[in-house]
From TrEMBL:
InterPro entries tied to this protein: BPD_transp_1_N (IPR045621), MetI-like (IPR000515), MetI-like_sf (IPR035906)
Keyword Transmembrane helix attached: yes
Membrane-spanning ranges: 87-108, 128-149, 155-175, 213-239, 259-285
Compartment(s): Cell membrane
Membrane protein topology class: Multi-pass membrane protein
CDD domains according to UniProt: TM_PBP2
Keyword field contains S-adenosyl-L-methionine: no
Keywords tagged on the record: Cell membrane, Membrane, Transmembrane, Transmembrane helix, Transport
Entry superkingdom: Bacteria
Residue ranges of every copy of the ABC transmembrane type-1 domain listed in the record: 81-278
Protein name per UniProt: ABC transporter permease
Family assignment from sequence similarity: Belongs to the binding-protein-dependent transport system permease family.
Length: 298
């Protein structure tokens, strides 16, 4: 249902926003040329006819052809996926390496300077638009210091600024949820019992508190993973990163309907799969959830 709604929404919006024939052909194109283009790409029927034809083709694995180069739209999109995954995985690693430790530190030092510094980071990360942060990084590290390349791909150094920009807001959100969840767990009775038994502090935090606080953390991380492709649209445009996000922006500008619809479907599918994995992870993290579900089914 989620995939169907996503495809339907983008189908309607794209066709309501302008005529692809006018965008792909010159302003001086004759009415005959426009009509021929519409017939060639199946745009001469009503919206309902186009919608039914498109859904029927998707069910058969046919996502249509790109207006720009005539190749299958799915092939065009999948060629860009590895580059976007490279950026997304790097951003995810930065998110986990920053967000979770910062959240734990803030919870363990509640009300102290470390907590205030961590919360200041979360406010900054969630408030500053990622495109603005990307531009600032380019001005500082590329234009002024000349330490890092400002655009493109091809090396580890090209990856640093885009990944850091993409990860900042996500890391801030993860840190905030980690702090809140850890504070709830640290005041539970079993934590006081573990302390009374003489269990070392680090072990109490890592082996007792963190696993019990993991469900909200896994939830927000899962949501962010699902949005990596969609969230990379702005970042890839700022840094000229040749991934799915940049392809999406160019395809929207050119009204390349098949490619845009394939990208949206890929993003929606990623969200659905990641949410399913997160739901299955709940039972592994907290067996009580699985037992509850079994009882409810019985």
């Amino acid at each position: 249902m989620t995939l169907l709604l996503a495809v339907t929404f983008v189908f309607i919006v794209l066709r309501a926003s302008g005529d692809p024939a006018q965008m792909m052909l010159s302003d001086e194109a004759s009415p005959e040329a426009l009509a021929a283009f519409r017939r060639r790409w199946g745009l001469d029927g009503s919206y309902l006819e186009q919608y039914v034809t498109y859904l029927s083709a998707i069910i058969q694995g046919d996502f249509g052809d790109s207006f720009r180069d005539g190749r299958p739209a799915l092939q065009v999109v999948m060629e860009r996926v590895p580059v976007t995954l490279q950026l997304g995985i790097a951003a995810l690693l930065i998110t986990l390496l920053i967000g979770i430790p910062v959240g734990i530190m803030a919870a363990l030092h509640r009300g102290q300077w470390a907590d205030h510094a961590a919360m200041s980071f979360t406010i900054f990360g969630q408030s500053v638009p990622n495109f603005f942060l990307g531009i600032i990084l380019i001005l500082v590290f590329s234009m002024t210091l000349r330490w890092l390349p400002s655009s493109g791909t091809g090396s580890f150094w090209h990856l640093i600024m885009p990944a850091l920009t993409l990860a900042t807001a996500t890391a801030a959100t993860v840190a905030r949820f980690t702090r809140s969840s850890m504070l709830d767990v640290l005041h539970q009775q079993f934590m006081r019992t573990a302390k009374a038994k003489g269990i070392p502090h680090d072990r109490r935090v890592l082996r007792h508190a963190l696993p019990n606080a993991a469900i909200p953390i896994v939830t927000v991380v899962g949501m962010r993973i699902g949005g990596l492709i969609g969230g990379a649209v702005t970042i890839e445009t700022v840094f000229a990163w040749p991934g799915v996000g940049m392809l999406f922006v160019n395809s929207v500008n050119q009204r390349d309907l098949a490619v845009v619809q394939a990208v949206v479907l890929l993003i929606a599918l990623t969200m659905v799969v990641v949410n399913l994995i997160v739901d299955l992870t709940y039972g592994w993290l907290d067996p009580r959830i699985e037992v509850h579900n079994k009882k409810a089914t019985a």
